[in-house]
Write a structure and sequence with these properties.
By secondary structure, the protein is an alpha+beta fold. The protein has 8 helices and 4 strands. The chain has a 4-stranded antiparallel sheet. The radius of gyration is 15 Å and the shape is globular. 31% of the residues are buried. It binds 2'-deoxyadenosine-5'-diphosphate and magnesium ion (MG). The site of 2'-deoxyadenosine-5'-diphosphate has 9 residues, from loops. 2'-deoxyadenosine-5'-diphosphate binds next to loops. It is an enzyme of class 2 (transferase).
Length: 151
């Protein structure tokens, strides 16, 4: 549906490398609507909760340390099939396997420095949006471009 929402984050390496504008521009120009955006350093506990499903993985500790190494741009984008399309725009988890044209395929090389996060299902999108944003942070507005992006 055209009002599906996904949680997209620019990880600390993306912020440090000055890729914030590049990554936001892709979602903006694709036609997605920005619902929420903030630069945050949410701390270890929050990041452990964000990646709770991976807590048994051997790379979990390094992953949380990486995510906790600097500010993160947290965003909610809305639009047609936003979760699946967002994942396609990110590219494969391992940047070496990400197609050129995707964020990871264009902007990074290693799994542990893969610059961005995107929700993998509508269910996890809802959970992640809830974890990262307060209800009041989610903006309800009608884009002036709406009728030029959707029939
Ligand atoms: P994604 O970020 O594509 O949703 P994921 O949820 O499986 O991938 O994993 C979260 C992050 O953890 C991923 O962006 C990079 C890191 N990661 C995943 N698998 C890894 C592995 N086998 N070794 C090291 N880091 C890994
Ligand atoms: Mg994931």
């Amino acid at each position: 549906s055209t009002n599906e929402r996904t949680f997209i984050a620019i990880k600390p390496d993306g912020v440090q490398r000055g890729l914030v504008g590049n990554i936001i521009a892709r979602f903006e120009t694709r036609g997605f609507k920005l619902v929420a955006l903030k630069l945050v350093s949410p701390g270890q506990k929050h990041l452990e909760e964000h990646y709770a499903d991976l807590s048994s993985k051997p790379f979990f500790k390094d992953l949380v340390e990486y995510m906790n190494s600097g500010p993160i741009v947290a965003m909610v984008w809305e639009g047609l099939d936003a979760v699946k399309t967002g994942r396609a725009m990110l590219g494969a988890t391992n940047p070496l396997a990400s197609a050129p044209g995707t964020i990871r395929g264009d902007l990074c090389l290693q799994m542990a420095r893969n610059v961005c996060h995107g929700s993998d299902s509508v269910e996890s999108a809802n959970k992640e949006i809830d974890l990262w944003f307060k209800k009041d942070d989610l903006n309800t507005w009608e884009s002036a471009q709406k009728t030029w992006i959707y029939e």
